[in-house]
Amino acid sequence: MKAAYERGVSIADIAASAGLSYSWTRRKLIEHGVEITCRSRRTTPVPVEQLATEYLAGDSILAIAQRYEGLYYKLVRDLLLEQGVKLRASTRAHRTMGVG
Fold first, then answer.
1. Whether the predicted pLDDT of 28 surpasses 70
2. Are residues 36 and 48 in the same domain?
3. Is 100 within a domain?
4. What is the reported pTM?
5. pLDDT > 50? residue 81
6. What is the residue range of 72's domain?
7. What is the DSSP letter of 87?
């Protein structure tokens, strides 16, 4: 958690990815000596433009998230949406509806 926060991942995103509450995650970060700061922009291990290029070239959100340390599905999805990328229908939705 500490390393993720220091790379720029928000407390809310860390908590969500681990299935933990925001307050518990924040408290644990503070207990481990992390100085909590106000952040207005997320940082990522690769430029968001590169993530968009990979997605538009056909890579799945999950594949992109697994490729880079510090990224996870929800963060990549949110970053792509913020970048204005139109997302493809998920393969999970197709399986649920019996398509494909």
1. yes
2. no
3. no
4. 0.53
5. yes
6. 44-92
7. P
